[in-house]
Specification:
Rossmann fold, 318 residues, Sugar ABC transporter substrate-binding protein, SBP_2_dom, 2 domains
């Protein structure tokens, strides 16, 4: 009888140990699967022709890769409809989050709505869209214009004459950057004369050709203000070719590698630095929150301030 009781207790003990081991393994597997849960970002670039956009994209891929997050990319080559189609393709692929440099204030609305209807969070990088429900990551474009204006208001001579090359005039980025510049330069320095404003489509070759035209039209001017670095670099090339760079202030926006090199060489005067790496980190941080179980509705916009970069503080942008 005593031997039978001992055997029964031995069986019970073995069963209890087995159950504890199974439970423990279950917890470990659950933790392991949670930590290595697959997550994919669909990144839709508006145009790979812009070095800054490519820089942000590459940082996203690098930082996300280090976190075990996959990134699939698309390039719309400046075509908003194509970008919308590419985002629809991301939806079909069932990515976990869409991040896009949205191509148009109104034209990108379908991309946002389709993503949200598919229960996929949409993050717009650098640009806003005329709808609700998405998360914005970037630097506020009005502030970029303000930084340009504040700098020029200090350094321009009395009765200065300036030229302004811009992005596409139907772009909210153009509107905001011009508003900031106007508020901090033209509204403050009434003596400063704007000789001309024209779109260079934020492209280097068009910035160069536009500056060549201005050199023919205007005998003297004190500054060329560009809404991005590529256009400013084009202006520098045209001024150098005409032996007119000395005495002309050339400023841009972005803090691209080429712009920083130009400032170091004493060609461009200033750029308004937007931090591509911090913007990319913010995108990945949002993805990590979603991967770890956060609700999309809990995500908040992330603003990363601009900064004026000249030769004197060049190291702050590197």
């Amino acid at each position: 009888m005593k031997m039978r009781k001992t055997a029964v207790w031995q069986v019970v003990a073995i069963l209890m140990i087995t159950m504890l081991v199974i439970a423990g393994c279950g917890k470990n597997n659950e933790a392991g699967s949670g930590g290595s849960k697959s997550f994919t970002i669909g990144f839709a670039n508006i145009n790979d022709v812009y070095p800054y956009c490519v820089k942000v994209r590459d940082y996203i891929k690098e930082i996300a890769g280090a976190e075990g997050i996959k990134v699939v990319v698309a390039n719309a080559a400046g075509d908003v409809k194509q970008q919308n189609d590419q985002i629809d393709n991301f939806i079909v692929q069932k990515v976990n989050m869409i991040a896009a440099i949205s191509g148009d204030l109104d034209g990108s609305v379908p991309a946002v709505e389709n993503s949200l209807n598919a229960k996929i969070p949409y993050v717009s990088l650098l640009t806003h869209v005329n709808t609700d429900g998405y998360v914005y990551v970037g630097s506020e474009n009005k502030q970029a214009g303000e930084v340009q204006g504040e700098y020029l208001a200090k350094v321009l001579p009395e009765n200065a004459k300036v030229l302004y090359m811009t992005g596409q005039t139907n772009d909210q980025q153009y509107i905001d950057r011009k508003a900031g510049l106007t508020a901090k330069l033209f509204d403050v320095r009434k003596d400063v004369q704007l000789l001309a404003e024209q779109s260079s489509d934020n492209q280097k070759d068009k910035g160069m050709s536009l500056t060549e035209d201005w050199l023919q039209s205007y005998g003297k001017f004190d500054a060329i203000i560009a809404q991005n670095d590529d256009s400013a670099l084009g202006a520098v090339e045209a001024l150098k070719a005409a032996n007119r760079l000395d005495g002309v202030i050339v400023i841009g926006i972005d803090g691209s590698d080429d712009a920083l090199a130009s400032i170091e060489a004493g060609e461009m005067t200033m750029t308004v630095f937007q931090d591509a790496k911090s913007q990319a980190q913010a995108i990945v941080d949002l993805a990590k929150k979603l991967r770890d179980g956060a609700e999309a509705s809990s995500l908040e916009n992330i603003n990363i301030p601009f900064k004026a970069i000249t030769k004197e503080n060049l190291s702050e942008a590197k």
